[in-house]
């Protein structure tokens, strides 16, 4: 999936923006940041269950990406590279937490919903957030990349540094655990 940004009358895809950014075009890189900071942040906040940690991770990822843009082998792989870098940073943050503190799930706002339904949705989201935190970090990363971010098994394997079989196994185990926890909500 190639995204486009309008600059004047010219539509710029990721490959063009990455090539221009590699040549030092700060505006082109800003366009890439605007395009991908939302998905990277949403992924990181679900991995870490902390908005503050997610903001820090995403900021680090984009700073690192800017510094290392020249190392990217294929311009078309930019988004996958961002997911891999974000995944690795999140896993490092999770591993560095000593001891692993109980993390309160982030509050979720429901809009345009009756108050009773809003409470129920909030409880479901809190249960899902808590269940996600009980998965291993690797399972959580694989499940989020597949189910929330729609990445392919191959992309996930590259992002987490595992083979496709391991990724499929992690996702299957995550689905089973999540289904058990979420069964009362069906």
UniProtKB/TrEMBL annotation:
Any one GO MF annotation of this record: sigma factor activity
SUPFAM superfamilies registered for this protein in UniProt: Sigma2 domain of RNA polymerase sigma factors, Sigma3 and sigma4 domains of RNA polymerase sigma factors
Domain RNA polymerase sigma-70 region per the UniProt entry, residue ranges: 32-98
Pfam families linked: Sigma70_r2 (PF04542), Sigma70_r4_2 (PF08281)
Record's keyword annotation contains Transport: no
Alphabetical UniProt keywords: DNA-binding, Sigma factor, Transcription, Transcription regulation
Family classification: Belongs to the sigma-70 factor family. ECF subfamily.
Full protein name: RNA polymerase ECF family sigma subunit
């Amino acid at each position: 999936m190639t995204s486009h940004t309008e600059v004047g009358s010219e539509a710029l895809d990721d490959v063009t923006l990455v090539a221009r950014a590699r040549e030092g075009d700060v505006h082109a890189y800003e366009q890439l940041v605007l395009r991908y900071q939302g998905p990277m942040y949403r992924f990181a906040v679900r991995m870490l269950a902390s908005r503050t940690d997610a903001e820090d991770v995403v900021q680090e990822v984009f700073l690192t990406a800017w510094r290392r843009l020249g190392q990217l082998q294929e311009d078309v792989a930019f988004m996958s590279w961002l997911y891999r870098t974000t995944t690795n940073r999140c896993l490092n943050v999770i591993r560095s937490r000593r001891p692993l503190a109980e993390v309160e799930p982030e509050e979720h706002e429901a809009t345009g919903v009756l108050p009773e339904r809003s409470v129920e949705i909030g409880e479901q989201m809190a249960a899902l957030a808590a269940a996600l935190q009980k998965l291993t970090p690797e399972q959580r990363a694989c499940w989020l990349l597949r189910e929330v971010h729609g990445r392919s098994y191959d992309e996930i394997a590259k992002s987490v540094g595992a083979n496709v079989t391991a990724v499929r196994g992690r996702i299957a185990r995550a689905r089973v655990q999540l289904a058990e926890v979420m069964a009362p909500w069906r």
